## 1
Amino acid sequence: MSDFKHISCAQTAQLYADGKVVIADIRDEQSFAAGHIDGAYHLTNGSLVGFMQQFEFDQPVVVVCYHGNSSQGAAQYLAQQGFEQVYSMDGGFESWRQQLPFVSDASA
């Protein structure tokens, strides 16, 4: 598979609650620290190799950005690297923030 699929916040939340996906948040460090989906992997250029070593290619991955635009390119990249089930979350973290709980490093 070399293409990603789109997924909604609600679908992502359900798959994540069932333990079926990894959330890969590609936003900058400050935005990630200010709020992210609990348990999300902060995927950056610097952590990409570690991510690819930590997760198997058959592990479903949902890529999250700010508004659901940048995540599409990152999702396509992961699909091209061999990940079999890659999704870009529509609406991004801003959509998630309005609908679902999240954590902040500042509140820890």
## 2
Amino acid sequence: MPRKGRGGKRRKVCQFCVDKIDHADYKDIGRLNKFLTERGKILPRRISGNCARHQRQVTVAIKRARQIALMPYTTE
């Protein structure tokens, strides 16, 4: 439990590590949508809470999904 008056921000944990998923799959659109803003930008690691390894995999997976039109580049 965070202490009073000390910031109290908890460190986010990587959802891929928690679920024991070793690789981010570009076909898993439901999971990848959690790492996009409503404008279609990829969330940075400090906001998403991913570890460095999985953040790189998520970025590549989103770019691949966009390439084959599974995910949008932007929302308009």
## 3
Amino acid sequence: MSTIRAQQKFPTWPTILSSLIAGGDLDRDQAYWAMGEVMTGNATDSQVAGFLVALRSKGETVDELTGLVEAMLANARPLTIEGDRLDIVGTGGDRQNTVNISTMASLVCAGAGAKIVKHGNRAASSSAGSADVLEALGVRLDMPIDRLEDVLDAANITFCFAQVFHPSMRNAAVPRRELGVPTAFNFMGPLTNPSQPTASAIGCSDLRMAPLMAGVLAARGVRALVFRGEDGLDEFTTTAPNRVWEVRDGKVTESLFDARDIGMARATLDDLRGGDSAHNAQVVREILDGARGPIRDAVVLNAAAGLVALDASADGSLQERLTAAKARAEDAIDSGAAKRALQAWISATA
């Protein structure tokens, strides 16, 4: 906690909730305090539920989301990894049960030479989360924290299991489960990677929350592409045009992008449907073995988004940069480099 925060008079739940109910916005420190109370178990289930519902009903702000994220990270188990590193992740919540596109895109980027520190968990709103699929592929998830950087060095990719790094989230589990509706917590996972990557490619299914997530990343000073399919998919998608928020130098630039503009065929949501973890793991193997079609296209597109976010130069238009990154992603698959990254990952975690 910062010295400024320590010196301030802390609010109370009645003042926080009264402000939100009246439609007032919290400042970053108030949001930080409230989330700190949740994370440390000092808030009752009623207070947690009231806070999440009041915040969601009013509509979150960048400052509020930033305060929540900072408090969550302050209560996470630390992980220090130096150098440029990338995370490719989605918020979930689109309820389309697609295959694990961001996981496959992460492997492709690792094959292309990027350092990937992936933050993920088991399935919440889909049939198979990243952790479920990686486990089915043979990646060991219960690695000691002090070995994760060694795994990264060996395979260009490592995994931060959310339930290991954020044990304090258990204090909100009951009210979240009993509420049964999306809250701010649903959008915090991609923003709370404990390694704090220097670049992120984030899919967000919620049109209102996507620019707020970009705003949090801009305030953090990292590079990112936040995107949403216009059909509601939390992926950089070939099924519809994409709304994109590019984060660079503390600024957010919004644009529209259609994968057809870089030579990709339009797909349907049915083309991208997945199944359980065993089914989705087999899809991963097939894509890394060179299978072509709509799933490969989606994987290549999301890998390209990650490579563009990681690239510090930003020379050329977004379309030009995605075109060049697409070629790198395709080569990582066709050369076998992405498959070798998975094999190295499995070996490094054995």
## 4
Amino acid sequence: MDTQQSPQPNYYPRFVSAITRNTLALILAGGRGTRLKHLTDWRAKPAVPFGGKFRIIDFALSNCVNSGVRRIGVVTQYKAQSLIRHIQRGWSFLDGRFKEFVELLPAQQRTEETWYQGTADAVFQNLDILRSHNSDYVLILGGDHIYKMDYGRLLAEHVEKRADLTVACVEIPVSEASAFGVMDVDDNWRITAFTEKPEHPPSIPGQPDLALVSMGIYVFNAKFLYEQLILDHDLEHSSHDFGKDLIPSLIKNANVYAHRFQNSCVNMASGTPYWRDVGTVDAYWEANIDLTTITPDLNLYDEDWPIWTHQEQLPPAKSVFDDDNRRGQALDSMVSGGCIISGATVRRSLLFSNVQVRSFGTIEDSVILPNVDIGRHAYLKRVIIEKSCVIPEGLRVGFDREEDQKRFYVTENGVTLITPEMLGQRIHQIR
């Protein structure tokens, strides 16, 4: 085999234990994700489709299930209907008889007449629910990143160091660190400073080009968390956010440690821990297109650490016609179930389910979301097409930036985003 994408043998040692079974995971999935522009006009960022058949939140949920953390709450707020429906359809297999569940926690003004005011407040407003589960540890997760991580290893390290709070961290270029919480650590990886989105991020000692940033993944001792949430709630000038308020206030007075992602990352195809914040249109396009390469950085062909999702019952993908000027073919591409490539050429692209590409067209370097119908003689390059678009016959996009900007959204890197609304089409369905 000349690729690392093939199914892997079942060899990965998981850290499933009494610790993971006594952990409650909370996935914070209420954010809009404004930098994704029109992709989040009708859905929260965690509900955005990714990788041909998944949604972004499937990665955090799958990490929980694979790690043995099977008591999970999903905190929702912004335009959550598609997210709620996805979880109801795809994540109902956990067995409540064994106290396994995925529980939806929508914003419902449980403590006062306000919606969630920050990440810490979102947890505080569900404090009675958290207490009812009687967990020893609470694992706080974001629902909007792409990665594979064994939370069992993170939890084991948290217990071993007798930490009150452990923050999972990853090393990224200093030039990109201003968008994250950045931390300093001592020789024992105890956090000595934590700054949320600093203008001038500090670098790792001895590695001037790298910064240590928070992944937005926290492990708390449950009782300690509840006490700190109540204290933070009573602070008049707090924004009630983990990164801005809660964690910086705990650095001097509690045992707060950093956990290196490389110690718990699962199946690193390139040897480098894979963690992507697909929070911009360019980053989203790049992460999806990377999956079409021979050996992508993210291994989706890993039987030992599968990514679970709602699985539609669809026919296999097919291509039809084999004439010289009308050949249905997909080259260096990923094509999902229900797709028909009818006398067209698809290169270096990712097609989600139920996409139809009609004759004499060419699709290159593009991400096509579900239920898109692409008309004849369409030439599309470096585009993202939103769900349920009907692309008119003869449309050319990706060849004249000035012309494309008149109708569509074009990023700084020249990726064009097309939605039904931009095409004058009204879609009456949940996205």
